[in-house]
Amino acid sequence: MPNISFYILKSESIYDRYLFACKLIEKAYRGGQFCYVLLDSIEQCQRLEDMLWTFRAGSFIPHQIFTGTPPEITSQVLIGTQNAPQGWFECVVVLSTKPPQTWQQATRILEILDNSEETKIAGRERYKTYKQTGVEVVTHKM
Fold it and tell me: Is the pLDDT of residue 105 over 90?
């Protein structure tokens, strides 16, 4: 079963949520993990992809948007709306309103919530899904 962490931000800003995600993704990348980032729409994927290029001067995180075909280069971050492909289960970052369908295959799941009601309601549902299977969930209030 995966290690699951919820990060709850004080801000209600989607920008702050994505910025925090970029920082976690960078930390995982520097630690040798190539995350899969789950979002709800292609527009959200594009927004996060743009932020990964610009969130910090001098930062470089190889990444691409996942369109269904696993990329040839495996040493990169994938961003998508579908299930993570084989090889990207080590670290799954959830910015989606739904849990990954194959979440039990993940080694680590990082859930990032802002303080908006909409995000918290969806986050509570995912939290319940995880807890119902007996997985321990750690919560970090940022």
Answer: no
